[in-house]
Design goal:
globular; seven-stranded antiparallel sheet; about 425 residues; about 25% helix; 18 strands
Length: about 425
């Protein structure tokens, strides 16, 4: 589970920005909360803000940090690191970026973070919590100075020479089979992911292939349940992955030579065609009939549900933390609410899965759905270009307060200021 994420000097987040999933003392919706030992942790977080305020930049910060950790071992020596600091002041654009995570995996709580620029990892650290205080596994400073404890030194000091200035020691040590870093790394490798409209559809096909190859019908069952919940009249669907061989020339002849030369031996190429066909049950002339529809002929909302299906199933079954940018895109508010409630229902969310999402859907701003510490806002200072992230809990609204109305009135900030009167058309 993710307990806290913080970022400093990345895109529009110049100053330290903290997203906390640790709860306050409020007992609202306490039956929905996740737990780790004596800590209470939020199952979901909603993030609001105006266009261009920085909501997607927070999503990009999480994405960038996770990808850097996963891909660290694939970097070549001196290969630049893909990090973009805050560029709108003379100091920050040349300063370093920091990421920090507090999370749990295999019944252990960890804190891991690193500081870097486009060329080097300057600082890095990993702690585990055996009690309320953190215990050191390793610390790294000034690029290549390392600190270990008596317990960790014998194993980890041997791996230092195998690391490079642009690689993360957490990934390097794990690749050299260190049991001191393996679990801390595996959470990033398998238990947290970010999603947007660009990667959701590719993942959907990959997951349908995997389930089909394993003769596993559980994804189809989950999808049909999700579609039924959305009140879409799809009675069934069929997924097909068809592979066929085609002849392909090793190179293409220019038009003026085509037909003038002897036939060129062709190579075999395997093409894969993936197809989803839905079955719609309708009443025609008083009789029930079923008609097929191609996936691409379905509504955008139906297609979005199909792409969400594998992600939601995987998260709920395996207790993963998922971060979705613009979760309400093409979905009716009632359906979006239903997806959120899956994570807040302990009878469905039995494995401590978490959902973090950006949205503009104001109807979800409801204290009957969320606790005050589950709602975050992002606001950008238009004079400095700096984004700020803060929780509704900082305003201490009454539990009976109309949060939607208060937000639209600008009581909590993070609202666009639209002024058409001063514009010459």
């Amino acid at each position: 589970m993710l307990i806290q994420f913080s970022v400093t000097n990345f895109l529009s987040f110049r100053d330290e920005t903290v997203l906390s999933l640790s709860t306050n003392k409020d007992n609202s919706h306490s039956e929905n909360l996740l737990s780790f030992k004596n800590e209470r942790i939020l199952p979901s977080v909603a993030i609001y803000g105006a266009n261009a305020a920085g909501k997607s930049n927070l999503h990009k910060a999480l994405t960038a940090a996770i990808i850097m950790i996963r891909n660290s071992n694939n970097l070549q020596v001196d290969q630049p690191l893909m990090v973009t600091p805050f560029l709108l002041d003379s100091k920050s654009r040349f300063d370093k970026t920091k990421f920090d995570f507090i999370y749990t995996y295999n019944d252990v709580k960890y804190e891991y973070g690193f500081v870097l620029d486009s060329n080097n990892v300057w600082e890095e650290y990993l702690y585990e919590y055996k009690s309320s205080k953190p215990s050191l596994i390793f610390e790294r400073s000034e690029i290549n100075k390392y600190k270990f404890t008596t317990k960790t030194k014998s194993q980890l000091s041997q791996i230092v020479d195998k690391n490079t200035s642009n690689k993360l020691f957490l990934a390097t040590a794990t690749s050299w089979n260190s049991d001191l870093t393996r679990d801390a790394y595996m959470w990033f490798a398998t238990m947290i992911d970010t999603y947007d409209s660009q990667n959701l559809e590719d993942l959907m096909y990959t997951e349908f292939d995997r389930h089909q190859n394993n003769n596993d019908s559980s994804l189809n069952t989950f999808m049909l349940h999700l579609l039924k919940k959305a009140d879409i009249n799809i009675s069934n669907f069929n997924y097909e992955s068809i592979k066929r061989e085609v002849n392909q020339l090793p190179f293409e002849l220019p038009p003026e030579l085509q037909g003038l030369m002897n036939p060129i031996p062709s190579a075999k190429k395997v093409l894969e065609q993936r197809r989803i066909v839905t079955s719609h049950q309708v009443v025609e002339n008083g009789e029930k009939k079923e008609y097929p529809l191609n996936y691409f002929d379905e509504s955008n909302g139906t297609k979005r549900l199909f792409t969400y299906g594998p992600v939601l199933k995987n998260a709920l079954e395996n207790g993963r933390t998922i971060i979705i940018d613009e979760i309400d895109n093409a979905l009716h508010p009632a359906m979006t609410k239903s997806l959120i409630e899956m994570f807040q229902n302990p009878n469905i969310n039995k494995n401590n899965a978490q959902l973090i999402f950006n949205t503009h859907e104001i109807s979800l701003l409801d204290l009957n759905l969320f606790r005050r510490d589950q709602i975050y806002f992002v606001e950008k200072n238009n004079k400095t270009g700096v984004s700020d992230l803060y929780s509704l809990d900082e305003f201490s609204p009454r539990k009976s307060e109309n949060i939607q109305k208060g937000y639209l009135q600008g009581r909590y900030g993070a609202m666009p200021f639209v002024n058409l009167e001063d514009i010459e058309w």
